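Page 47, continued from p. 46.
Same chain as before, 137 aa.
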Amino acid sequence: MQLRLRTGAAALAATAALVGAAGATAPAAVAAPATAGKAAASSCTYGSIGWYCGHYYATPQRSVTLSYGSSGAAVRELQDLIGSTTAYYAYHNQPLTVDGQFGPQTRSAVRWFQGHYMGKGAVDGIVGPKTWRELRG
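Result:
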C-alpha cells in the first residue's frame, strides 16, 4: 500500500479551523514538527501551479532541472515542498533543511520522494519535469 499524504500545512489549517469551529482547542500534537530551526517554513499553499512555497514560481514544464550540486531559490522550493507537503518528517523523524544547497541530504530526500510517490522506477535523484509535476501535486 502506498501512502499518498500530501496535505502539509493545508491539513493543519483545516484541522485548526474545524477544531476552532467546534469551540475546542487544538491538541499539542497537531503542531507541525518540521518548523524548527532551518527546517521547512510550512508556508506552502496550493494554487494555480499546484503546491507553492514562496521560493521559486514555475510550472513543472518550465521549471529548471536540479541535481546534486545545484543551488538557489529552486532548490529551496524543492526542499520546502518535500519537507512541508509530504510524509518526509514522519518517515525520517527529522526535518529537511531548507538551505538552497542540493547536497547529500537533499539528494536522499529526492530519491525517497521519487521512490515513495512516483515508484521505484522513477528514482534517479534528479528533479526534472516529471518530479516537479509530482511535487507540485
